[in-house]
Structures are given as structure tokens and as C-alpha cells.
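sry for the spam today, last one i promise. C-alpha cells for design, 476 residues
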């Protein structure tokens, strides 16, 4: 059933009861009332509007993908360690595996001699057992042989002599192939080393599970998979992972003034830059954007194209047509559609006419046609929605506190989200300043900004030195 959200559809009693009004006068009265409603929309605070949207958003579908295709995706289930790390005693440096008490009293003037009985490179396992007075050459990352309880650094030793040997002490096995032929020590030259530094038991050895225990969480559900996450998942043999499907998002621009990029620029027209701003923002949010053909200022066409987009895609974004002009048609569309209108005016600048509704569970975000307002509206409302759809439990941006380095004397009865530059001083202090072009139509402010700071509604604005809430933008 079509929902009628427009109070102007209720005919005034004076129009109904008065026989003296002509059809033209009645129509004019209705248009006047509709005009007043369009101008006098209910205003919603930003935080209330954000909560209203997010409480209606559910996580999307889940799919299984190879790990190499998981970068930038959000994990759909918690990944845990299925074994300890390391799962063997691991040398953390090049040197010699020894028995610590054999080095007792060693220093530059009292060197301790040890017989080197073999070598353990990475990926190999020494099958014998180290005995008192012996040492085994070992590489960083290799498994420490049985009997050894410490590793002495290479630079703490000196080679004394080399000689042949007929003693078979142990065998070297590759951990990659269990049936690899052994290498007997009688085929390897032996030598004696002098140790001139005392080592303690456990020195230069990572014990089993010192980095990670069985059952420890590797990647949280909903977490975005980056390089570190991919490395951890690979370390534990996750060849495939379950991730949330990328939301499919439609971008629709409106307005007779817009030109396609391949068209020639003519007086009164501008290129459609908003769609490409949104395209970049959507890609950074990990979703699949679909740039649809431009919609002219025609309500019938707008309705057909929007209805079709809401049917085919997971989320729809429009840019332009949300204000109070005669050709701003999104207001008319959302007042006579099969959806629920949540709000169409937010107590913020830029982007106060930002409009959001849901149709059959799918969000429609109608953003301002001004580039900066469109950009800010996306960051405050669309990005958190897309993150929630990809399993992020707390998708709203976390503010930090920074000190304003110059005055911001803008009077406004609405909160202002100001495009700004955040810097961290050598002392670790967060400082912020507005970009030079603080108007909603200035695309250059988007290029220059790495954050938004909140300037609360005020009659005076703010002075330099004031502490403000700062919302870092994606990629900072």
C-alpha cells in the first residue's frame, strides 16, 4: 500500500466548506499549504537521525571466498587460533643452540669451548639430542633441538678449529617432507667454538605459545581484513574465509544543470562531480558502486528510475533535488511512495535537507546537490549504514579531541561539521584548523580535508584554543 506522508493532502476545511472558492483558488490554497509544509519540515538532531537509521539496518548475506580475495572484506565469523604460536621452540636469532650451564663463567678472558655437532636451518628438525659440551649451529626461526635450553648469539662466539669426525650424533630432517633422507653428521665438517658470554636458560628462544595460545581470537567478526589480518589468517591455515557480501549500491544524480563528463561545457551547466565523489567514498567503504544514468527534473521519470533502483540494489543514493526549490523533486517522491520516510531535515550544516527512508527494507539516502554537503552526508549517514551491513557492530565514527588553532567565528543555530585539517605535533598534541573554503559548494575543501570537526550551534562561534570534537575521515 502506498504511504502518504504529505500533510498537505488533507484538504483545508475552508476549501471544503466554502462554495465561493473556484477550483483554481482551491488548487492555489492546496499548493500554498504544500509549499509551507515543504519549507517547515521537522528538524532532527544528527545523533537521533543516525540512531534511527542504524536500528533498521541488518547485516547482509554471507559468502565464502579464498583468502587471497578477502582483502578489504569484513569477516562474517570470528576466526580463532587452532594451534599455539610458535608450535615449537623457535630460535629468535642466528647463533648456536647450547645448554646454558655450559656457558657458566664465560667472558672475554675466560672463553668456554664447545664442540659444534651440526647445523639446523629453518624448516629442518634435529632428531638427536644435544649433550653437555656440545653446540648446534642454528638459524633464526629454526626449531631448537632437544636438550638445548638457550641460544647464544653468533657474535658472542669465535670459531676455534675445524676437524673431521666419525661420531654420528643425530640426523637432520626436513619438516616439509617427513620421509626425507637423513643427513649424518659424519658427512659434515665439525668445529669448536669459543663462547665469551654467559647465557641464561630460555635466552633467544620463543617458547611454545608465547605469541598466541589455542583459542585466542585472530580476527573479530565484522572486522575489515587488511594486511595484518590476512597474514594472521594465513599463518593458521585459513585458505577460505566467510565474509559479508559486498553491498551493491546505486548512485543516481538529479538536476537539469548537470553534464556528463564527455559533454562540452556550456553556460549555465556544470559537470556531474558529486557522482564521482560518491563513487570514491563507496569504494573506500568496501562496497560495489553502480553509477546509473542521470535523472532529469521530471517526477515521473524520477519515480520510475528510483523504484527500479530500489528493486535491483541493496542501497540507493541520490544527489540533488532534496531542497525546497520548484525542481527539487525528492520531497514529492518520498511523500507518495511504498516506503517509510525517517526524516528530511537534519540539524546540521552542510546538508540540512538530507533525506533518508526505507522501502521494503532497503535504504534510500537522498543527499544534497552541493558537493561538500553530499560528502558530509555520506560520512555521517551512508558510511555507518554500509559498515553495519557488513557486520560492523559499532559503525559510527569515534571522535577525538583536538585544539582549534585559529578562530572559527561562524554564527549558526545548527551544528556545523567543518571540513578541516588535523595534525599531530611533535609533542603528540592533536591540532585542527578549517580548510580555507568553508562553503558547501566548494569541492576543493573535500580535497584538502582529512577530518570534520564539530562546531556546535552558537551565536559567537569559537575562538582559537577551543577544544573540539574531531571525526577523522577515511584514510587518515
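last one done:
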Amino acid at each position: 500500500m502506498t504511504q502518504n506522508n504529505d500533510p498537505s493532502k488533507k484538504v483545508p476545511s475552508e476549501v471544503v466548506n466554502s462554495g465561493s472558492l473556484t477550483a483554481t483558488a482551491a488548487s492555489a490554497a492546496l499548493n500554498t499549504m504544500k509549499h509551507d509544509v515543504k519549507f517547515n519540515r521537522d528538524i532532527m538532531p544528527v545523533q537521533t537521525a543516525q540512531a534511527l537509521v542504524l536500528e533498521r539496518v541488518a547485516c547482509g548475506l554471507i559468502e565464502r571466498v579464498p583468502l587471497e580475495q578477502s582483502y578489504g572484506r569484513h569477516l562474517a565469523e570470528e576466526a580463532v587460533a587452532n594451534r599455539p604460536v610458535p608450535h615449537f621452540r623457535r630460535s629468535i636469532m642466528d647463533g648456536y643452540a647450547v645448554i646454558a650451564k655450559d656457558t657458566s663463567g664465560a667472558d672475554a678472558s675466560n672463553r668456554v669451548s664447545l664442540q659444534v655437532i651440526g647445523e639446523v636451518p629453518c624448516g629442518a628438525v634435529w632428531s638427536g639430542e644435544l649433550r653437555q659440551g656440545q653446540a648446534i649451529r642454528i638459524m633464526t626461526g629454526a626449531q631448537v633441538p632437544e636438550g638445548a635450553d638457550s641460544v647464544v648469539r653468533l657474535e658472542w662466539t669465535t670459531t676455534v678449529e675445524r676437524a673431521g669426525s666419525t661420531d654420528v650424533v643425530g640426523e637432520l630432517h626436513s619438516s616439509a617432507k617427513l620421509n626425507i633422507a637423513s643427513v649424518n653428521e659424519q658427512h659434515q665438517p665439525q668445529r669448536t667454538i669459543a663462547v665469551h658470554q654467559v647465557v641464561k636458560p630460555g635466552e633467544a628462544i620463543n617458547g611454545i605459545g608465547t605469541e598466541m595460545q589455542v583459542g585466542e581470537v585472530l580476527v573479530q567478526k565484522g572486522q575489515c581484513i587488511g594486511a595484518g589480518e590476512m597474514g594472521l589468517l594465513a599463518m593458521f591455515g585459513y585458505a577460505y574465509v566467510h565474509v559479508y557480501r559486498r553491498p551493491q549500491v546505486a548512485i543516481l544524480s538529479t538536476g537539469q544543470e548537470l553534464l556528463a563528463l564527455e559533454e562540452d561545457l556550456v553556460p549555465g551547466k556544470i559537470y556531474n562531480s558529486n557522482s564521482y565523489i560518491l563513487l570514491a567514498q563507496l569504494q573506500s567503504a568496501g562496497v560495489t558502486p553502480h553509477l546509473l544514468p542521470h535523472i532529469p527534473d521530471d517526477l515521473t521519470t524520477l519515480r520510475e528510475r528510483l523504484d527500479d533502483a530500489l528493486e535491483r540494489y541493496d542501497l540507493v543514493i541520490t544527489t540533488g533535488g532534496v531542497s525546497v526549490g520548484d525542481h527539487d523533486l525528492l520531497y514529492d517522491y518520498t511523500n507518495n511512495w511504498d516506503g517509510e520516510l525517517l526524516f528530511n531535515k537534519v540539524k546540521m550544516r552542510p546538508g540540512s535537507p538530507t533525506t533518508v527512508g526505507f522501502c521494503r527494507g532497503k535504504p534510500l539516502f537522498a543527499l544534497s546537490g552541493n558537493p561538500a554537503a553530499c560528502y558530509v552526508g555520506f560520512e555521517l549517514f551512508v558510511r555507518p549504514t554500509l559498515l553495519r551491513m557488513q557486520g560492523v557492530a559499532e559503525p559510527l565514527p569515534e571522535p577525538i579531541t583536538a585544539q582549534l588553532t585559529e578562530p572559527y567565528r561562524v554564527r549558526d543555530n545548527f551544528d556545523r561539521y567543518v571540513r578541516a585539517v588535523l595534525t599531530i605535533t611533535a609533542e603528540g598534541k592533536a591540532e585542527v584548523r578549517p580548510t580555507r573554503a568553508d562553503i558547501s559548494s566548494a569541492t576543493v575543501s573535500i580535497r584538502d580535508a582529512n577530518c570534520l570537526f564539530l562546531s556546535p550551534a552558537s551565536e559567537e562561534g569559537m575562538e582559537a584554543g577551543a577544544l573540539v570534537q574531531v571525526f577523522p575521515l577515511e584514510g587518515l
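The chain has nine helices and 30 strands. ok im logging off now
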